Amino acid sequence: MLLGLVCGLWSCSAPNPNVRVERMQNGVLRVKGPLAGPFTTREELAARACDIMTGQPGAANGAYGFEYCALHYYSHESKGFFLSYLSDIGGGKDGGRKFCQMPLSVDDESHPDAIILGGAHSHPHNRQFSREDLSARAQWRPTRVFDQHSRRVFDRELLMLYREKTGECRAYGYNSATRIVSALREGQWIPIGTVYSDDGDIRLMSGQDWLP
């Protein structure tokens, strides 16, 4: 009875099972994996990641929401793309600036050959990348990675995910190698802009915008 009264007063809630993150001794955040996958294409991965990440508690609460971060990666053995579990370590839950600290390591015992292809994060109140997201200092290094097993070269990419008030889930990708921003539309990446400065300034392409 006492526990029920305390929870009634303070809105107790169970931990989110999709958040599995730890800070290692060197300060780097590591997430477990996989939460979802395998996916045949990066487009399928982005669409599913959008549904999952913007569907978390507080992820679509506008100015009073907050961000979730994750990693996406490739396994040659499984011939597929995966989304890691999530991190909610960040700030801006009470109407301030939103951010989440991106994990840099994935712990996936079932895919020891995992190659991290980039990060993913949700925005609770803005469908556009921030300048910080697109800045040179936030780029994944190296911007391209070579998989010795498949002999494939992958561009590293940052995914940004946003759910409209009407329910549509919008996924955007920033290619760290080409510096092109794309929007996922009808299952295809459509280039919509180019980042032209190290500070993350973007120039939209002719006839393109953040919304179709």
Overview of the structural elements:
The chain has 212 residues and is mainly β. Helix content is 12%, strand content 36%. It is globular. The N terminus is likely disordered.
Element layout with pairings:
Blueprint lengths: L1 H9 L10 E3 L5 E4 L3 E4 L2 H13 L14 E7 L4 E4 L6 E2 L7 E2 L4 E3 L7 E8 L8 H4 L9 E4 L4 E4 L1 E7 L5 E7 L4 E6 L2 E8 L6 E3 L8
Parallel strand pairs: 2-8, 9-12
Antiparallel strand pairs: 1-2, 3-5, 4-5, 4-9, 6-7, 10-11, 12-13, 13-14, 14-15, 15-16
Brief rundown of the structure:
With 212 residues, this protein is mostly beta strands. The chain has helices spanning 2-10, 42-54, 131-134, and strands spanning 21-23, 29-32, 36-39, 69-75, 80-83, 90-91, 99-100, 105-107, 115-122, 144-147, 152-155, 157-163, 169-175, 180-185, 188-195, 202-204. 37% of the residues are buried.
Question: Which key terms come to mind for this protein?
Answer:
single chain; disordered N terminus; mainly beta; 9-stranded mixed sheet; globular; 212 residues; 3 helices; 3-stranded mixed sheet
- E-strand count: 16
Q: How many structural domains can be distinguished in the coordinates? A: 1
Q: Secondary-structure element order, as H and E? A: HEEEHEEEEEEHEEEEEEE
Q: What characteristic shape results from the CA principal axes?
A: globular
Strand proportion, as a percent range, falls in 35-45%
Q: Kindly, what is the distance between the CA atoms of the first and last residues, rounded to a whole number of angstroms?
A: 53 Å
- The helix count comes to 3
Largest sheet, order of strands side by side?
3-5-4-9-12-13-14-15-16
**What structural class should be given to the helix and strand makeup?**
mainly beta
What share of the residues lie within helices? 10-25%
Q: Major sheet: size, sense and barrel closure? A: 9 strands, mixed
Low-confidence stretches: 1-12
Described by its quaternary structure, the protein is single chain
- Alpha-carbon Rg, integer: 18 Å
**Mean of residue pLDDT?**
91
